[in-house]
Amino acid sequence: MGIIRHTKSVKSLIQAFNESENAISVAVLLKRFKEDMNKTTVYRILDRMEESGVLHSFIGKDGDRWYSKYTENTSASSTISHPHFQCDSCGKSECLTLDINIPPLPNHKVDSASLLLIGQCQDCLIEITQ
Amino acid sequence: MGIIRHTKSVKSLIQAFNESENAISVAVLLKRFKEDMNKTTVYRILDRMEESGVLHSFIGKDGDRWYSKYTENTSASSTISHPHFQCDSCGKSECLTLDINIPPLPNHKVDSASLLLIGQCQDCLIEITQ
DNA sequence: AATATAATGCAACTTTGATGCAATAAGATA
DNA sequence: TATCTTATTGCATCAAAGTTGCATTATATT
Ligand SMILES: [Mn+2]
Ligand SMILES: [Mn+2]
Ligand SMILES: [Zn+2]
Ligand SMILES: [Zn+2]
Description:
Chain A is of the alpha+beta class. Chain A has helices at residues 8-19, 26-32, 39-51, 72-75, 122-129; strands at 24-25, 55-59, 65-69, 84-87, 93-95, 109-120. The model of chain A has no long low-confidence stretch (mean pLDDT 92). One zinc ion (ZN) binds next to helix 5 of chain B.
């Protein structure tokens, strides 16, 4: 196991996540840093940041991967990972602190869960109302 | 909107789903029918079968798509679609009739959910115990 | 400053899935 | 049964997403 170096590229990624309230999809990150670094580099930095526990990832409604930094709320919420929300209108995804109870599942051992709620986010609800 | 023809290829797919208790991933279907039909045909038949309401699909833990036929239990379980289970050991996925309650989410409108429980299936639990 | 090696860029490659179009075959009609 | 209509398929081609090997570069340590 090696040390993670604080390179220019790594700093850019960290900044992007610090500036964002919500999760960021790989597709968006690749576009955003297209001029600054190779796509291979983006993928590899995300891998490292997740492995080192700075970020976590989840699968969006269309099977695409999203990354988000950990916060006090989303960090150790439970053994089973916290749920996420993805907006059907604008596509953005957020980490949720919502506590979803998983009833016991006979004849199975449930270790984790990928819980994605889908609908309209606050911004998009306001837009519709107006 | 046209009529869905009961072709040789369509029959093969229907048979595959009728013979299977669990969901089947696109990857597995492509391999299984590699000799029998073009991959484009597999994709197109799955699209049609889902659109016509014979099958439904969901996203697996690695972002890959799975298909399964509807049953009395999984059909109209609720507005929010029923949960699924994917085994971390053997990779297979199943539809669940388990009822998972989603608490109200302030400032959001939740229309559907993608709920995937991950762990060990019955077969794999037995294997470990022995 | 010199060194060790983690990180990056680049090219090549694989995988997955979509698309346009000509050929085929299912099902309806006569 | 023969004919007809068009839904479906095969095939070639393409695009997007992601991976890998390796030479080069940049970071952190001494
Ligand atoms: Mn999260
Ligand atoms: Mn199902
Ligand atoms: Zn929105
Ligand atoms: Zn299993």
